[in-house]
Amino acid sequence: MQDMPNNETLNVVNSDIVVLTKLASGVGWDSIRELSVYRMLYLASILYSFKYPHHDNMFSRYYHFDIDSAGPYSDEIKKSLVFLESNEYLIRNDNSFKLNPERADAVLKAAIFSEKENWLKAIIYILGLYGEGKIYEFVIRDPQYQDHIERNVPKELDIEGDNKTIRILNKFKQAFEKNIGDKATGINDTEYLTLYFEYVFSKVVKGEIDL
To answer: pTM score > 0.70 for this model?
Structure first.
């Protein structure tokens, strides 16, 4: 087996995927579909820019997402999945991956990034709460993604700054934060995202907004 390469981007993405898979198992998912890995990390990236517009996006240095017919695609994620599978950190079952506990600890010990792990934990929580299908629908209907598809623009998807997706998310942010009042500044990421999507999806169900 190969040793883990001395490559910062690959090491970071490896850690993210292994932590993501571990967190997913904690909410009862035995494995994660390969396509879901791309969608989850894209969602984690875009929602970070939404929640923390004045922070540097901790994903943008390592991830570049392009348009693919199945959803956002990242070459960095693809290379990482190949590496993690070939070195048996992840075990493939058809089109899904699960952790190999005997090997994954080596990657987890190298993952020193509590802020990112806490953020991924918040993402996994809302995925577990609303179901992967709900998040899949959110990603596929992502305004920025759809705009590129409709205009056939071979362009990297922006995961920070002023893009259509973040503008749509921000469209409801002010009303949402007004709805929950002072609580908006005193809750953690998990509770904030949970309440935000609860607010947005309830408006969708009532026909008051259309994503």
So the answer is: yes
